[in-house]
Amino acid sequence: MRDRAQAVVIGGGVGGCSVVYWLTKLGWNDVVLAERADLTSGSTFHSAGLVGQLRGSLSLTKMMMSSVDLYRMLGDEVGLETGWHEVGSLRLASSNERMEELARQAGWAKTFGLPLELISAQEALELFPPMSIDGVVGAAYLPTDGYIDPSQLTLALAEGARRGGAEIATNTRVTAIDVRRGRVRGVETDKGRIGTELVVNAGGMFAAEIGELADVTVPVIPFAHEYLVTRPAGLPLDLPTMRDPSLLVYFRGESGGLVMGGYERHPAPWGLDGIPADFNGRLLEEDWDRFQELMENALVRVPMLGDAEIVRLVNGPEAFTPDGEFILGPTDVGGLWTAAGFCAHGLAGAGGMGKLVAEWIVEGVPSLDVWEMDSRRFGRHYRSRDYTLARTVEIYSTYYDVKYPGHERDAGRPLRLSPVYPRLAELGAAFGEKSGWERANWFEPNADAGDESLRPRGWAGRLWSPGIGAEHRATREAAAVFDETSFAKIDVSGEAAADFLEPLCDNHVARDVGAITYTSMLNERGGIECDFTVTRLAEDRFRIVTGTAFGQHDLAWIRSHAPEDGSVRVEDVTSQLACIGLWGPASREILEPLTGSLDFPYMRAREVAVGFVPCLALRVTYVGELGWELYCPSEFGLRLWDSIWDAGRDYGLVAGGYRAIDSCRLEKGYRVWGADITPDDTPWEAGLDFAVKLDKGDFIGRGALIERREPERKLVCIVLEDPRSVALGSEPVRADGEVVGRVTSGGYGYTVERSIAYAYVPTDRAEVGQPVEIAIFGEWIEGEVVREPLYDAESARVRS
């Protein structure tokens, strides 16, 4: 075995072999894969192998489509069978709400380039004759889906990697990861040391214990997953795969018989006290009692199972993550990467995942927006095994549930509480959760002042309250107070802080003390990697405020560029500071009796005292009104809220939640990172060119921006003719009968009284007045591109 390598990949399952295969494809031929036993001896060999491509985001779907592209050609390339069967897939709707879900997915498919079609129950029966269609309303059919043999696929990927120069070292157990000064220097194995500066943890269900070797948390929990295999019974060999999510079950063909499994309501976590060292190529004991629920459901849909001869019940552990998505990308340890957390779609995504991770490693930037899969999305609270377990149990047991927009998970809550939390609860907050924080979505007592007739049609109106509109209008007409303690806050300090931040930001941030700058940090392609405000607190200290869910990502991005000489310190100070937002035309009248004069201008910061509470007041807004974000040490947070609340009684002050903020920001055209703007989108495309200072000197992405100055597409604001038809994201946008884009975010604007959507469309379709249509649950709703922002175009309100 080599004692030195450009990269070491740990884990010989389908994920690890895919990463190594693609690394060699990209020219890295000095690569070692270390597998503790034989290839596929972890979770891979017992996977059911279903490959479905349509997912809830463009990036995930593209990754799955890339897998299918690979599976079609890999066998011919390496001269080995992969067991790929492109038989198509059926997803049944056994209720009206399921049919609505399929209609929404059909809309996504149009924008993702997938040939998904909605069909009748009878048409589904013709494709899958052994099933009963009792209770089936309809189905979705995707002809390019299928299934694959997991072991054959893995061996084919390994063969391709060997041909590319990689070494596949089986029966080689990694016992330590050498980390010095925060960076990987090598790995120790039971066969000797391999010096390397890059390690990929593709350990599957072992990924957590591999991460512990470098003090990196990989939040995965293995679950015992079962499926049965029947003896061949003459069924067609080209049966599509079939899922009936209402019954929690899936089916696929197997040599004229069937494979049937599912995701039961009462799952069985496994290996919580550690996975046995000799658990290689092994299965768990059959558990017919736990499988009974799925068996009964399966007989409803495929009655012939009752007479089928069962060859075996496969029971094997599969690793799940707390949000049901992959864990990919770099970690806090330099040179240590993760490619794990395959959950229920590992075989579907493995080929595309390996390509994505390899490109990310070799080129420095992923080819897709990977935020929802990024290993850095999990905060410190996932170091708790109990919390991780609670979240993953909920994910597994609700895997097939309909998730309505605004759906909130319940497990592990409440966990992170603002000092204001008791007041929010007393005021009747409808709480949501983000990154572990409890946050008020709206306050139900405000519903009495709202308008029930504005409830959006369909799904958009399910998790909704008239209180949202009441809070929105109070923000515009009087004042509203918001608890924004969950906002992520990052301090950058040190003698070189200014010189460090300037090349990272596309706007000029090293301005005078007290200046607030809205800026992006770009990647080398000019895509928006981070989006936030930067306040200069002192000559050597800056504070970044970013979205609650993006703190870990942005912190990691900034730290990855920080010098190692100690001249710059990058600290997460989120938990140290409470934040109360007060906005509305009456906000100055409410605050000045507590603070004295507040005559400093928009986008400036000043130290003030609000009553007894010392605060840093930032005159910024995400709602488009006069007001301030007030930051104080957390222990003062409750007193700060109470002081503002008492002072606002005579001014119509209401407590507001995050849904009202979102409605207000839509009217003002403020972007949301991860939806309206992503690492795939440039400031030119996103309409953020006002914040780019090409003349400030060099910064990351500047060259790409100059080359891409004339974008082929632009983010536009669309208003719909029907104000109660509300877009939720990913709906197709059509112009002149042609699908030209998809919605990034949408909602209802209670001041402009319009349904608002944002979408990227070709530049020649981005002119104001362009007629468009948006497909909302299968119905094309007319609208048009309008000038933005819809509200207070001159921003006179925020500067008043």
Task: Walk me through this protein's architecture.
- This protein is of the alpha+beta class.
- The chain contains 18 helices and 38 strands.
- Strands 5-6-4-14-15-16-13-17 form an 8-stranded mixed β-sheet.
- It is globular, with a radius of gyration of 27 Å.
- The N and C termini lie far apart (70 Å).
- The mean pLDDT is 96.
Helix content: 10-25%
Rough outline: globular
Strand order of the largest sheet: 5-6-4-14-15-16-13-17
For the biggest sheet, the summary is: 8 strands, mixed
Strand content: 25-35%
Pick out the low-confidence regions. Answer: none
Structural class given helices, strands, pairing?
Answer: alpha+beta
Number of helices: 18
N→C terminal distance: 70 Å
Q: Please tell me how large the radius of gyration is.
A: 27 Å
Strand count: 38
Structure summary:
This protein has 800 residues and is α+β, with helices and mostly antiparallel strands.
Topology:
Elements: E1 7-10, H1 14-25, E2 31-34, E3 50-51, H2 58-78, E4 89-93, H3 96-112, E5 117-119, H4 121-127, E6 138-142, E7 146-147, H5 150-163, E8 167-169, E9 174-180, E10 183-189, E11 192-195, E12 199-201, H6 207-212, E13 221-230, E14 241-244, E15 249-254, E16 257-262, H7 288-301, E17 310-320, E18 327-330, E19 336-340, H8 346-363, H9 385-397, H10 421-426, E20 429-434, E21 437-443, H11 466-477, E22 479-483, E23 488-493, H12 497-501, E24 516-522, E25 528-538, E26 541-546, H13 551-560, E27 569-572, E28 577-583, H14 587-595, E29 605-610, E30 613-618, E31 627-633, H15 637-647, E32 653-655, H16 658-668, H17 683-686, H18 702-707, E33 713-720, E34 732-735, E35 738-749, E36 754-762, E37 771-776, E38 779-786
Parallel strand pairs: 1-2, 1-12, 2-8, 4-14, 12-19, 22-32
Antiparallel strand pairs: 3-7, 4-6, 5-6, 9-10, 10-11, 13-16, 13-17, 14-15, 15-16, 18-19, 20-21, 22-28, 23-26, 23-27, 24-25, 25-26, 28-31, 29-30, 30-31, 33-36, 33-38, 34-35, 34-37, 35-36, 37-38
Helix pairs in contact: 1-5, 1-8, 2-5, 2-8, 11-16
